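Working notes for the structural subgroup meeting. M.R. asked for a predicted model of this chain before we commit to crystallization trials. I am recording the input and output together here so anyone reviewing the notebook later can reproduce the run.

Input as submitted:
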Amino acid sequence: MSHPDILLIGHVTRDLLSADLQSDYRLGGTVSFGAVTAARLGRAPTVVTRAAASTDLSALPAEAEVMALPSPATTTFANVYTERGRVQRCHAQALPIRSGDVEGRLRRPRAVLLGPLVNEIGPDVAGIFDDATLVVATPQGWMRRWDDAGRVYSERWDDAGGILACLNVVVLSEEDIEHDLSRLEPFFERVPLVVVTASREGSTLYQRGGRGAIVKTRIPPRPAEEVDPTGAGDVFATAFMIRLEETGNPVESARFANVAASFGVEHAGMGGIPGRETILAYMREHPFGAATGEP
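Returned structure, recorded in token form:
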């Protein structure tokens, strides 16, 4: 078989629709939102994940090649959104994903998104890809823990160096770093391009410039009528990665990703993720002028 186009690695999740652990759930996780986004953009996604055999994966696009490795449980979350942000609880975890789980033919995609949710992607995975591959990570799952009741909280990623050295791009939210921009310093030191999303405020690019200076560029949002913000960061990261692989232009890619994510939050679940022409039509109708970088 040929090498994959867009590779997505991480756990699919059971996102509970109520606090009852036996309640219905919606399929979630970075790789799920990423697979739908890639398919809607006309790309061919391949997913490497772990889940229990009973997990309903039918929400993944028909275009996706899905490698669902066995696990006794599927990673399970409950999300509650408040005025002060999201309260998240982790009720179950699938088994980890290690480099040996990624077949040799999968190691030369055009782009790969590492989307850990519960620290499931081992540090050995980031370095297995061909030099021509665009390697992107959403590191939230390496940057959080949970207490005995399952409540998720943010934590510093102190052993990040080995993984960061293998990445071309990091995409994370202000929430992931508890709005503490000083926590970005390790990323700036090792990764040439860091993107920070800020919900309704759009996103900010941090690019390493001459003599190691970091150039900051703010990218405005598309105003949206928010219905369900779950997965917005995953849609953004996937859209950004795909557009960057296609154009090599980080500013255009961030604008493209802002628009994609804004459409996605206007519907529950993955139903609102837009197609390519919807995004490009909005961008044509609302042109974004030359950005001003701030050192």
